[in-house]
# Entry
Amino acid sequence: MLSWRDTLPALINSGYRTYAPDYPGYGNSPPDSNKKFTTDSLIHYLEGLIDYWGLKQVVLIGISMGGSLALGYTLKNPKQVKRLVLISSYGLQDKAPSHQLSYLYLKMPWLNDLTWLMTRKLRLAAKYGVNYIIRNPQSRTESLIDEVMEAMRNKDAQIAFNQWQKDEIRRDHLKTNYTSRLSEIEVPVLLIHGTHDFLVPLKYARRAALLFRNARLEVFNNAGHWTHRDYPEQFNKLLIEFLEQ
# Structure
């Protein structure tokens, strides 16, 4: 709900059967002690869920890390995907912002623990984090801050996300980068990106739009990494129109 609270009602009211799973360790989903949290393992979970639900074809909508999972799933299961919606998607960039600093940050577990502790305990720290990914002041509500602080109290999520980051951020590159394979994807793709996304800079979405066979890029002015929560009404309208085409 932290990711999709503003979008789920729009999809359901438009008549779409909608699934929004919490991956292991997130939300109320227990962690998987038998597997490390990597992009490949998360794609495996997604394959298992879609198979369990008995879905023959799906539209995948992913934000950030979820975008890379949608891309990876589509490349492995091209006949099962009808359309792709990628919001501020990971899996399109060569390096993380301030890549060397990000790499060093993950080598200092105490600093990572301090970041999570401050965000779950100090409202000011949570607000600072939200301001970094949501640019629209009207969308940075007190209830959203409450949701973020609650999510950060989940220590299983901290472990899962840290494992994923350590696996992804290598010394001089990112492990998952689908750029060279985007031309293999034939289904319609909607890319949505904010002009002020500092985690996945807009230039990577612009490059990806040219590499897909059938892609459309929509840029939201003065939006950050959570474009869909920055301007939910604009996003939902665009999404429903894309699904109905």
